[in-house]
């Protein structure tokens, strides 16, 4: 069975990166979605601008598709409102929404792409699912690994990447942006086959 793919190439796709706004959180593990969106914005060749939907947005083209890049201006746990508001403004249904987010259950640098599924304890995804009224949107999961020892996962995600991880981070963010472009250009199954290994 082949996995369903994004709407036709003439329709816009909403690419959302999750994170918390402001310099205090900028380098946190929880903000890797913002980091990937910044890389995609560099590829589009533009700057994010405040939008009434509640996100910073940038319109452009990636992998031959018209895309809207969006970084919610709310805190992570309230991401759903800005995502749903931006999707509604651009008339993009849930099947055209791709969310890039950090994932505790994938080792650092690992990537998993999927359509639908649970939120796995991720409050940003929980908020988006509630606001969109469905789980059927695309996720690009950027692995950040599990916290060491008995550290609370809620504390772990709000810490910066380790020194060792920071050396690899630019490469992994670039690779995640490549995976998003593969999803846009070649579809879910091809992107999974290319990026799930390693």
Description:
The protein is of the alpha/beta class. It has one domain (13-195): Rossmann fold, CATH 3.40.50. It is built from six helices and seven strands. The protein has a seven-stranded mixed sheet with strand order 2-3-4-1-5-7-6. A hairpin with a 4-residue loop joins strand 2 (49-50) and strand 3 (55-62). It starts with 12 loop residues before the first strand and ends with a helix. The model has no long low-confidence stretch (mean pLDDT 92).
Order of helices and strands: EHEEEHEEHEHHH
Name of the CATH homologous superfamily: Peptidyl-tRNA hydrolase
Structural class: alpha/beta
Question: What is the straight-line distance between the termini?
Answer: 24 Å
Strand content: 15-25%
Order of strands, widest sheet: 2-3-4-1-5-7-6
Number of strands: 7
Mean pLDDT score: 92
Unreliable sequence segments: none
Look at the structure and give the CATH class.
Answer: Alpha Beta
Radius of gyration: 15 Å
Which architecture name does CATH use? 3-Layer(aba) Sandwich
Give the number of helices. Answer: 6
CATH topology: Rossmann fold
What shape does the CA trace take? globular
What's the number of domains? 1
What about the largest sheet?
7 strands, mixed
Helix content: 25-40%
GO biological process, one term: protein quality control for misfolded or incompletely synthesized proteins
Keywords: Cytoplasm, Hydrolase, RNA-binding, tRNA-binding
Binding site for tRNA: 25, 75, 77, 123
Family: Belongs to the PTH family.
């Amino acid at each position: 069975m082949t996995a369903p793919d994004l709407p036709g190439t003439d329709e816009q796709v909403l690419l959302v990166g999750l994170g918390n706004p402001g310099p205090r959180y900028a380098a946190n593990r929880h903000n890797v979605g913002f980091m990937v969106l910044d890389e995609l914005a560099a590829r589009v060749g533009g700057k994010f601008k405040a939008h009434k939907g509640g996100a910073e947005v940038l319109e452009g083209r990636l992998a031959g598709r018209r895309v809207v890049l969006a970084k919610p201006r709310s805190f992570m746990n309230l991401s759903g409102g800005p995502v749903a508001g931006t999707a509604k403004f651009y008339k993009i249904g849930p099947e055209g929404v791709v969310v890039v987010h950090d994932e505790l259950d994938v080792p650092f640098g690992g990537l998993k792409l999927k359509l639908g599924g649970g939120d796995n304890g991720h409050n940003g995804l929980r908020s988006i699912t509630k606001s969109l009224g469905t789980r059927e949107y695309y996720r690009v999961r950027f692995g950040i690994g599990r916290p060491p020892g008995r550290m609370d996962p809620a504390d772990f995600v709000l810490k910066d990447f380790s020194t060792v991880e920071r050396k690899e981070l630019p490469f992994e963010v670039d690779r995640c942006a490549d995976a998003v472009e593969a999803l846009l250009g070649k579809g879910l199954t091809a992107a999974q086959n290319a990026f799930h290994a390693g």
